[in-house]
Design a protein that fits this description.
The structure is a homodimer.
Chain A: H1 11-22, E1 26-29, E2 34-37, E3 47-54, E4 71-77, H2 83-93, E5 99-104, H3 107-122, E6 127-132, H4 152-165, H5 170-183, E7 184-190, E8 210-213, E9 224-227, H6 231-245, E10 252-259, H7 265-281, E11 285-292, E12 302-309, H8 312-319, E13 322-323, E14 328-329
Parallel strand pairs in A: 3-4, 3-5, 5-6, 10-11
Antiparallel strand pairs in A: 1-2, 2-4, 7-8, 7-12, 8-9, 10-12, 13-14
Helix pairs in contact in A: 2-3, 4-5, 6-7
């Protein structure tokens, strides 16, 4: 296993230590594996909490900061955080106006965040929840009933975070989050497997000349395997299922071409050129974009595409200032 | 070869196309492979140009923008851009106050930038040059007489770019750049080789249980190979040669823990925690830091460490606004 680690069981805590040292604007609760802003948001505003298994960095800890998350709860690699830790995060950032939980649709996450919401309710904190299930690749999957939550989570955390800074109430923020989830779709692919530190070997075998289309961010099986194709063909295999499921033509969209962790930026920009050409040809007007590693799968080589139908409101929220380790602009 | 590309010979031009589509704030000259700001800086200010072989993204094209570079010249992968193209970039961004060339110390780059400077001088453009040679790993190398230019280039481009925005004259900017080069050192390591698209196979063989310490950003040989060690040990192998060559104790420093392209962020933060602990123990006061993929070697797994002795002036320049695809803050 070729990794920059000490013992596999210490990867999460030691990575959190590095994050904490690198970013004094964040505060890390090492007992609960919770990352919060060092300077909390004003009293009376809705707080936004997300989390899940680690191994998808910068998601979620790298998105804590002004204009995005108030807290991220980091589970062990590819393992949901426990309800008491989600509850600790919720408790820590509540500013009296309620808390939104952003949950990727994996069975463990959904269950643990639900239990945390009940614990929070018991101490008088109002919690709203959005379940992100944007992955068009497969209906059910290894850890999921229904569609998996993947790349749209990044865009949703940015947009909802901006709305929370504006002081909107929890009901309106839940409504916004639900609307965003309905308007966004993703599709991913892998050239290689990832390797979970504790396992010490690749999650799955993918022959040197093969790729997997529709992969999940934990290496869950996708739709099909086939010989590695040119970028142009791969782009088509990502764009078509998305546009087959989302009527995005004729309007503005926010588009993310995301790297899975092991693919270099020169390839991601090349892929963006291919998907952008296909999307424009299909009548999608790309109004904003992200190209880079935003929701990863450890060291997996590959990429995913996310398309979110936008409108004036979403573009305004997108352009609002954000200051996090992973996304930063406008301030 | 597991890459998101079409034909190997089209990788650069197609990646530039994606960069251009993703960043309307940049302008790409596809004939010369030159990336400039869509909105040039004011007349009367020194322009800053860098470049070199591609495959190190976001360096250099991702650092074009306010507060950093005016132009980047992108050679083919790991291949120096030709003098006429460097000259085209120099000509394009000169605002009447001269142009600084930032050149990583590789024989081809040094020669081609020197010829470009002569061509520019012939048309009346004053050019100053800084050669970056911060790599403590080896004295001479595969493509280099003297030390190689690596991670410090990123920090130097940021700092000098800020000085140029302030309206300083060329002589003072050359002096600043030379001073920065004298105060910074880097050391890298690899867990895997990179694969150049045109070659189609790994540049070198590195057995599954081995790592290479002192690697160059083109896969040039380092100091020694040995069994993969814990992150703590790797950190020591990076920190010690740097501090053995640079008296950085007792003062502030800007520190970068850089990923080589194939190592995920969770590992880079873990490594940062290790190097930060060692540096602090040695009396280095880390005043600013960067953790992530800033100067890469295609898909190589591994990391490098850069330490720059700082002072009030350098920290002020560091904190000045920067707005590029690869670095962005303060605005």
């Amino acid at each position: 296993m070729k990794k920059l680690i000490n013992a596999p069981e210490d990867v999460l805590i030691e990575s959190l230590r590095g994050l904490s040292l690198a970013h004094p604007e964040l505060s890390v609760d090492f007992e609960n594996h919770v990352i919060t802003r060092a300077t909390p948001k004003e009293q009376g505003k809705v707080a936004v909490v997300s989390g899940g298994g680690s191994g998808h960095e910068p998601l979620h800890g790298g998105y804590v900061g002004h204009g995005m998350l108030d807290a991220a709860v980091a589970g062990e690699v590819f393992t949901s955080p426990t309800p008491d830790r989600v509850q600790a995060a919720t408790h820590a950032v509540d500013r009296g106006a309620g808390v939104l939980h952003i949950v990727k649709n994996y069975t463990g996450d959904v269950m643990n965040f639900e239990m945390a919401a009940e614990l929070a309710a018991a101490e008088g904190i109002e919690v709203g929840t959005v379940i992100v299930d944007d992955d068009v690749a497969v209906q059910d999957s290894l850890y999921t009933a229904g569609r998996r939550g993947v790349g749209l989570t990044v865009l949703l955390e940015k947009l909802v975070g901006a709305a929370a800074e504006e002081g909107r109430d929890l009901a309106s923020i839940v409504e916004l989050a639900t609307r965003i989830n309905g308007q966004g779709r993703s599709m991913g692919m892998a050239l290689t497997s990832c390797t979970v530190p504790a396992a010490g070997k690749p999650t799955f075998d993918l022959p040197e000349d093969q790729m997997e289309i529709g992969i999940g961010i934990h290496g869950e099986p996708g739709r099909h395997r086939e010989p590695i194709a040119p970028a142009k063909e791969i782009a088509r295999m990502l764009v078509e299922p998305i546009l087959g499921d989302l009527d995005a033509a004729g309007g503005p969209a926010i588009v993310m071409l995301n790297g899975m962790g092991g693919s270099p930026l020169i390839e991601l920009y090349l892929m963006y050129g291919e998907v952008a050409a296909l999307l424009e040809k299909a009548g999608v007007q790309i109004a904003r974009n992200l190209v880079g590693d935003y929701i990863t799968s450890l060291d997996m080589a590959g990429c995913s595409l996310t398309v979110l139908k936008a409108d004036d409101e979403l573009l305004r929220l997108w352009d609002a200032p954000v200051r996090t380790p992973g996304l930063r602009w406008g301030m």
